[in-house]
Amino acid sequence: MKISHNISLKNHHTFRIDCKAVTLLFIESKEDILCFIEKKNDYTPFYILGGGSNVLFTSDFQGTILLMRSKGIEIQEDTEDEIVFNVAAGESWGDFVDYCVQRNYYGIENLAAIPGLVGSSPVQNIGAYGMEVKDTIISVEGYSIGTGEKRVFSNQDCEFGYRSSIFKNELKGQFIISSVTFRLSKKEKYNLTYAGLREMAEKSLEPLSLTAVSKMVVSLRNDKLPDIRVIGSAGSFFKNPVVSDEMARLLREKHPDLVVFPLDNGAMKLAAGQLIEKAGWKGRREGDVGVYHHQALVLVNYGKATGSEIVRFYQKIIADVVLKFGIRLEPEVNIIG
Fold first, then answer.
1. How far apart are CA 213 and CA 219, in angstroms?
2. φ, ψ (nearest 5 deg) of residue 181
3. Which positions ≥6 away from 189 have C-beta within 8 Å?
């Protein structure tokens, strides 16, 4: 394993907080995973970091950061209608989406330009514009940190939920994902259930194609999200809250313009960004911490914000939303400190 010590994490996570870790381990293979597991007592405490696009460090990390850097895209099945890939955890998610779009493999194009790594995608069950990664995952392979045992989780075993999985809950910090197996379609099929995407497709003069859809998704993201190369951010900071049908009805009596999305289980999902905007936080800034002016769901680091400053800032937002709507927002970002 490649090992570094006392290294800044600023360039290893998208919030770009200037903090350090005692040790960095670069995991480039399954052998590196097993080596780490064998010597894990020497590296405790530890945190597994993918692309760093969904994490906020509140202080220096007094332990070991595992950076997943394994590579490889392997075709396991290839039929007239479908193709199955096994993809290494360290592959860039955006690069994998582009790889599939360029070859006309359907199923993940609406997830274009999401920062992070392939191995992180099932942990968070990433989703955007009417699509979730769980709908293409066959299985997730990796190793138990406690025993070194290799395990393969079927889609059902992963216990996928809204921005959630067994790896984020029950197995958090106990399992290292080494690869993910996806099934994609070769048949032309587009998901335009998201209104903004559908409207763009209807107005476009370009024929509908995977490339066209991918470009529209990237355009939508660029309109709402900051360029993380310039402004530090972890994308959507809060989960969209899920409430009962009755709660949604009562809220809409007081706030008729509230956006409500019905879910399959009868519950209702609200738009956290709208709640934050209505509470008066869109575009607000305190020092180098702020709410992005194009999207209230996004918190940003304008340059020299600390993790603790961002924590104090988001806690104020939560308190104001509770005061106005009686709903407590939950961070989607992992808070480490």
1. 10
2. -105, 125
3. 106
What angle is formed at CA 230 by the lines to CA 47 and CA 317, rounded to 5 degrees? 65
pTM score: 0.87
- Considering only CA atoms, which of 110, 53, 34, 102 is closest in space to residue 73? 102
Relative to beta strand 82-88, strand 61-68 is unpaired
Burial-class residue 193 by CB neighbours within 10 Å (0-12, 13-18, 19+): exposed
Q: Helix (H, G, I), strand (E, B), or coil: what is residue 213? A: helix
Residue pair 115/236 in contact (Cβ under 8 Å)? The answer is no
Active site members: 163, 236, 332
Here the tokens at position 155 are 């889609």
| Tens of pLDDT, residues 108-120 | 999 999 999 999 9
pLDDT tens column, 70-122: 999 999 999 999 999 999 999 999 999 999 999 999 999 999 999 999 999 99
* CATH pick for 2-68 out of 3.40.1650.10, 2.60.40.10, 3.30.43.10, 3.40.190.10: 3.30.43.10
Domain ranges in the chain with CATH number 3.90.78.10: 232-336
Give the separation between CA 178 and CA 139, rounded to whole angstroms. 11
Bridge partners of residue 137, in order along the sequence: 182
- Overall fold of domain 73-185: 3.30.465
CATH number for the domain whose boundaries are 232-336: 3.90.78.10
